[in-house]
Design brief:
Blueprint: E1 2-3, H1 10-33, H2 43-69, H3 77-106, H4 108-113, H5 116-120, H6 123-178, H7 181-197, H8 199-218, E2 224-226, H9 227-245, E3 249-255, H10 257-260, E4 263-265, H11 270-283, E5 288-297, E6 300-308, H12 314-319, H13 327-340, E7 345-351, E8 354-360
Length: about 350
Amino acid sequence: MSRAWPERGLARETLFWALNVGGWATLCVANIYVARMLTISGLRDIVWCALFYGSASMLSAGLRGIYRRADYRCRTISSLALITFPSAVVAGLVWKLLEDSLTAWLFPRFFAEQGSWERVLMPAKFMASVFSMTWPFMMWSILYFVINFWLEWKRERERAMKATLLAQKAQLQMLRYQLNPHFLFNALNSIRALVDENKDNARAMITELAEFLQYTLVHTDYANVPLASEMEAIGHYLSIQSRCYEEKLVISTEISEAAGRYSVPCFLIHPLVENAIKYGMQTSPMPLRMAIVAEVQDRSLVLTVRNTGRWVEPPMARMAGEAGTGTGLENVKERLEAAFAARYRLIIGERDGWVAVTLEI
C-alpha cells in the first residue's frame, strides 16, 4: 500500500476562469452600455454577443496554455514579448474571422450590405480590423502576467512566513524529541550501567549524547543544511539507541556523496528515524532491522527510511495509548509543503514485513 499528498490546484483554476469569463463579460457590457458600440434589440443580438465574447474567453484560455507551455516565469521581458505579441495577433485574427462568420450566419442581410466576404477580406481593411481585435488580447496578456506574478510573489511571501512559523514549531517539537524522558532515561541508564562494566563505552556514549545535543543548539535558526550534516547528527542519535537496545537493533546507512551535498531543512529526517525505531520495536520480530538509503536520481534527492515491522495507523496508535502518534510525520509534511510546495513527494509503503517511508525532493 502507499500514500502520498498530491498537488491541489483547484482554487487557482477556479480563480482563472472567474477572472477570465468575468473580464470578457465586463468588456461586453461596457461596449453595450458605455461605449455604445453594440446594440441589443433581439434574441439574435444576445446570441451573437454570447458567442462572440465566449469565443474570446476560449481564445484567451488558449493563450494561457501557450504561455504556460513556454514557461513564462523563467523568461526575460524581451523574450516574453516575442511570444506574447505574435500570439495575441493570431488570437485577434481568429477572433476577427469568428466575428465575420457569426455576422454572416446570424445577420446575413446586414453582412451582404457590408459587401460580403470580398469586402471584408480586403487587405487594408482586414489588417486594420485584425489590429483592432488584437489589442484586447494584448491587454489580457499583460493583466495575466501581472496577476500571476503578483500571486506568485504573495505565495512565496506566505510560504516564507509559514516556513518560519513551522520551523519554530519544529524546534519546540525537536526539543521534546531530544529531551524525551524515555530517550534520556534509557541513555542515562545505559551510561550508568557501562560506568562499572566498560568505562570507555560509557565515555563514548556520553560523547554521542553531547554531540547530538550540541547539534540541536548550533542550528537554532533551522536553516537548510547539507544532508551529510543532518545524517551526522542522526548518527549520534542512532549510536545512542544502538547502545541502549544492543543486539535488538541492527542499523545500516547508505548515503551517496551527491545526496550528502543535497540541502534539506534542518531536523527534517529525525522524526522519520525516531518513528522507525519507536514503532518498529513494537511490531517487528527481534532484532529490529532499519536501513537509511539516500541517493540522487534525475536531480532529485530520494531518501528512504525502512524498518521491519508493520505500519501503525495514527488512529489505531492513539487508541492503544500512544500519545503524539502521527505528529512527527505531519510536521515533516507541513515543513516540506512550506519549503518545497509541489516539488516533493512523501510516500509510505508496507511490503514483505518492511515499512518504508520515501521522501523525494
